[in-house]
Amino acid sequence: MPDDKNILQREFYYKDTLIVAKNLLGKVLVREADGKEIKGRILETEAYVGESDKACHARHGKTKRNEVMWKEAGHAYIYMCMGLHNLLNIVTEAKEFPAAVLIRKIEPLSGMDPKLKTYGPGNLTKYLHIDRSLSGIDITKSDQLYIIDDKYDIISKNIITLPRIGIDYAEEDKELPWRFVLK
DNA sequence: GGATCGATCGGCT
DNA sequence: GCCGATCGATCCG
To answer: How far is the CA of A176 from the C1' of B7 (A)?
Structure first.
């Protein structure tokens, strides 16, 4: 764990998922791997909240795949989508309540490999060298993956809320404005 | 620029 | 077996 006072701590994540999703915009995701540091500013998030949210993985109860969502706030939930893409989520709210924020988009800040694209939730994990082996780690204590607040100035009017993407099966819940984008 | 569609494969609805 | 919190190529206009 680097000696950095600006690493987001448990209380940041231990809140309403919609608040955490919005507050994560503009924060800096840091990945340390192979002696290198890769950073990206978070530009887009989505909230997935509880077993009653028809878009949330937890909607059919706990399985081996999604059990991390029931952990304490501040853990990383990483899972494979479409048998191909690794997606990064941060667990929020109370222990035993399944909720998480999906990180959809970042702006590369360092460690940039121009061959790798960073848009889209599947590509940003590739850029950050994140895979399922990191799922379940505590990002308030890990030195491999954590999020810092560099006091980047967010103008609240630049935050747009939109419906979530790729959840056509979610019936009425697919229209919920639980996606947050920083202009 | 937006819409559409096939690839691809792990987890379980 | 079936389906999916996606990506990228390709088509149309």
So the answer is: 30
